[in-house]
Amino acid sequence: MNSPVEDQSETIGDVPDPHDPYPFFAARRRAGGVFHGTVMDYSRTPKELRPTDTYAAMSWTAVNKVLRNNTVFSTKLYDTTIGVFMGPTILAMDGSPHRAHRNLVSAAFKPQSLAVWEPEVVRPICEELIDEFIDEGRADLVRDFTFEFPTRVIARLLGLPAEDLPFFRDAAVAIISYAGNVPRALQASKELKEYFLGHIEKRRTAPSDDIISNLVTADIDGEKLSDRAIYSFLRLLLPAGLETTYRSSGNLLYQLLSHPEQFAAVQRDPGLLPQAIEEGLRFETPLTLVQRYVTEDTELEGVAIPAGAVVDVCLGSANRDESRWERSEEFDIFRPHIPHISFTAGAHTCLGLHLARLETRVAMESLLARLTDITLLPDDNPHIFGQPFRSPSALPVTFDAVRGAL
To answer: Model confidence over 325-354: pLDDT tens digits?
Structure first.
């Protein structure tokens, strides 16, 4: 069976507009939940890293089906893309190897740890950052806050020296940007391997209270993580912990500042923050797609997909599926709660989702407690941009300080 929209590429467009991909997504959903083609722009990707046959899952139903069937829709393709730079990680594992490694790694993110991290790590870092700009009366909340706080949080949770932060961050960005500069990404990967091996050895002889120590000492049924598994996971944690949280918090701030009545409601009642965070994740998904490798001939929403194809799993489209949400193209923190799929689903659901939510909530609580009359400066034309990673590059604001808040 052929895709029902193969002959509509001229009217719909070949790839989404990175300024606003949602009209493209909506058109593809209306034409069918799955199509033969891609939502990725591979123009800057080296030919050897591009898939040769692609399909895209656009509807909520199609995306959910793909994510929950790891037998037919495998993550193994990451071994030949981002895995070239990160090494073998749980991102590309399926079945029992994935379950075993996930169980070991998840020990470092246990609920007891989150309860300690909030008052001892996350909140102090947010307060420190606000201290750095509060007397100015204006700030770029991306440069001065949303980009900084998750980087500092991850570095501190790993037990890394503060002076290593610039190296740590630059290497993470180089790896996630591998398509634009493969040699730099490979060099960053090598540098991080050597850097983390040194820290792994230190923790092995003198464990401390940090994630690296937890990974070194993790033991489930006599199984431990190898050094390679640990430093590969840490290389994955760098961009994962930085990219998604800084982008989702920036997206949420942009939407609230662009909807003053909703922002005012959150300012009056910070108890609305959890639902605002979920609506922000739904409406502007920080990562609009993940990919899967098809292990056998299959059919998805009436479209035949051959073994060996790659499927773009479009989270950003699924999160605006009009068959699931009324007024799906509107940002509304008061809408009835219906779970989104921004953290994916199934066996590969994001391991750090609870930490990401905690970080965003604490960051917003800190801003609301210490700043008032926050106003987005439209003259600088702030906007959300990107595909598949989306966030504002700047959020220039003016504000008044809440004196005596601390």
So the answer is: 999 999 999 999 999 999 999 999 988 899
Tokens describing residue 105? 């790694």
6 three-class SS: helix
- Bridging pattern class, strands 298-300 and 371-376: unpaired
| Strand, coil or helix: 312 | strand
Neighbouring C-beta atoms of residue 99, cutoff 10 Å: 13
What one-character DSSP code corresponds to residue 45? S
The region, left, alpha or beta by phi > 0 then psi within -120 to 50, assigned to residue 93 is: beta
Number of Cβ within 10 Å of residue 34's Cβ equals: 30
* Non-local CB neighbours of 80 within 8 Å, separated by 6+ positions: 49
Q: Which residue has tokens 């909703």?
A: 262
Task: Order the strands of the 138-140 sheet from edge to edge.
Answer: 138-140, 396-401, 371-376
Q: For 64-220, where are the E strands, in sequence order?
A: 73-74, 138-140
Going by their DSSP bridges, the two strands 54-57 and 310-314 should be labelled as parallel
pLDDT tens for each residue of 220-248: 677 788 898 888 888 888 777 788 899 99
Query: What sections of 109-226 are H helices per DSSP?
Result: 111-117, 123-133, 148-158, 165-176, 182-205, 211-217
pTM, full prediction: 0.91
- Are 159 and 117 in contact by the 8 Å Cβ rule? The answer is no
d(CA 138, CA 323): 42
Q: How far apart are CA 246 and CA 108, in angstroms?
A: 21
- Bridge partners, residue 391, by sequence: 385
